[in-house]
Specification:
Length: about 325
Amino acid sequence: MTTVAHDLPPVSDNAALTRWLHGLPGVDQVGLEARAAGLSTRSIKTTSKAWAIDTAISMIDLTTLEGADTPGKVRSLCAKALVPDPSDPTTPRPAAICVYGDLAHVAREALGDSGIHVAAVATAFPSGRASMPVKLADTRDAVAGGADEIDMVIDRGAFLSGRYLQVFEEIVAVKEACRRPDGTSAHLKVILETGELATYDNVRRASFLAMRAGGDFIKTSTGKVAPAATLPVTLLMLEAVRDWRELTGVQIGVKPAGGIRTTKDAMKYLVTVSEIAGPDWLTSDWFRFGASGLLGDLLLQRQKLATGAYSGSDYVSID
């Protein structure tokens, strides 16, 4: 176990923040990738598999983030979330529907008081290339439209240039923009876009920076950049949230997103969550899958466990 034994110095300027972030333990690339590879070989059988499938379904942020998205497509996705398997009312519902901010109100109306959250991407997703007033307006509009959760993107250019204080202050400002008039707040997921961060050390630093700035979740990717979610990167982020709780007492969630399409993939991630962060993270409050096609495969596997046979290919929509 890696224990982060650092105090939390004041975030007074970029130099102080840089010293703190660069004082974090370095990442053993070979060891990290070997651990992820080993965990990916674990198998889950019978009743444990049934539990894992239901747990994975309950952790999905069912996502549509295309330029051609329409209110009708969002309502259709919400209907799928409300009734994932019409033949089996015991099927869990996904945790959230994830859409562009201008469609948050459509999802909010369609989902009503079902308990399924509305997650909206904001801050000039996926590039993050916009002025702060635009990013904050984007966030406030999504919250006003009914978003329970905001998925923001960090400024990777600023981070990679060492302007850590700028990234920190942007996260703090977006967190404040998540506040509603009644004093409650939408939860903030901070997208690191790990495929652009180049090194595991940068992923660790970005994770701690996002948590230090007040993010409720750290998220791997927008799904628009390759590579998106990978098991080694997610393992590293799970280590970070585990260490952050040891250091501060505050629990932070993790969301891998992009490229997770099969039940086999999901099982690897659940094993990793259990082994690295621990069972406290095995709920949708603390772990999510950002995915569009994963639900369909999980439903097919769930039906296979229940009936002993796969349903026809036209029974469950895969995307």
